[in-house]
Here is the input.
Amino acid sequence: MLIGLVGKPSVGKSTFFKAATLAEVEIASYPFTTIKANHGVGYVRVECLEKEFNVKCNPNHGFCINGQRFVPIDLMDVAGLVPGASEGKGLGNQFLDDLRQADVFVHIVDISGTTDIEGKVCEGHNPAEDIKFLEDELNKWYYNLFLKGWQTFSRKVDMQGQKLSDAITKQFSGLKVNEDHVKEVLLDLGLPERCSTWKEEDVKKFASALRAKSKPMIIAANKIDIAAGAENYIKIIKEFSKLMIIPCSADSELALRQAAKAGLIEYVPGNKEFKIIKELNEKQLEALNKIKENVLDKYDFGTGVQEVLNKSIFDILGYLAIFPASSSKLGDSKGNILPDCFLLPGGSTALDFAFFLHTDFGNNFVKAIDAKTKRVLGKDYKLKHRDGLEILTK
Ligand SMILES: Nc1nc2c(ncn2[C@@H]2O[C@H](COP(=O)(O)OP(=O)(O)OP(=O)(O)O)[C@@H](O)[C@H]2O)c(=O)[nH]1
Ligand SMILES: [Mg+2]
Here is the structure.
């Protein structure tokens, strides 16, 4: 799964990326600091099963602190997007190309209003404008891709009597569009089956709806630590009540994670508190106090960075965290306890999980056992978030 960080220049995309991955990337207050996309590994946070079994886990991937398991996911930070990007303005199309492979977008917005529409420092900018223009540019990007060659494509589909949803999925596979998305959009819009009869307006509607379905979006209302942020945030959640908007301070998260890495504080990403464990100088103390007062004590999700990642994967994409585990033996052959935690699509069954682990497990599936309750489960059992399952085979 790939999360793409998008937004106009200077909103804090690279800061968010660095806070989540601790990778070395360039951060600066002028627009277009990032030119080439950055790829890295971030984590979603899941309550580990170790507590239920009273053991200490040894993760193969990611890590676990105080019973909180951090499971790796891919993140991508790209160049800033300005109005007209789909027509090539700013760093335009090159950057849009980077986004094709994303499964979900985090739109980073400067909620403090201290950067204008092109990312230059200002005061009093209305973040609502940014939310609108970005969606618009992304929709235009899809539309332009569709329009290119649409006539030839649609005629061929109709003439050869191809199944429309299948043909579109194949044609636009580079955008990671799946056939379910296409079917749902065709059904929602009620467009004619003969796609060569679609008007330009129909193609536009279709492209926008498919963009929303195949690249769903969550909004990180970043720079909430700046005074004007709080007021703007309240306005924005009223104006865009249908969108998922999380207050966020990437800069605060970065400071906390770096302080924790340097051994100055104990901090579990996503928590609302930290503990000082080393003697700090006045400047360090002041910086941490500001984060506590302006961000952690004020908002439900701490700095919001972890919450944005979790919501993207578990709420928007609907994934489930599943632990391979058996009630009698929690370790693997090397004695590692609860070594794995996998992310599976919502709606997956016990049999899907078996195939996910290994084709042989799937082909020879007999039953699954719930490690927490010892209940026997059949192949059609629908997985639940934080299930621990053992697969028994022939
Ligand atoms: N106060 C505050 N400043 C932030 C926050 N996040 C980022 N910044 C600052 O905003 C400026 C831009 O940050 P970047 O991370 O480089 O922004 P970007 O979106 O990657 O910008 P481009 O690469 O130019 O598109 C820097 O000066 C950051 O320190 C935040 O949460 N709070
Ligand atoms: Mg950047």
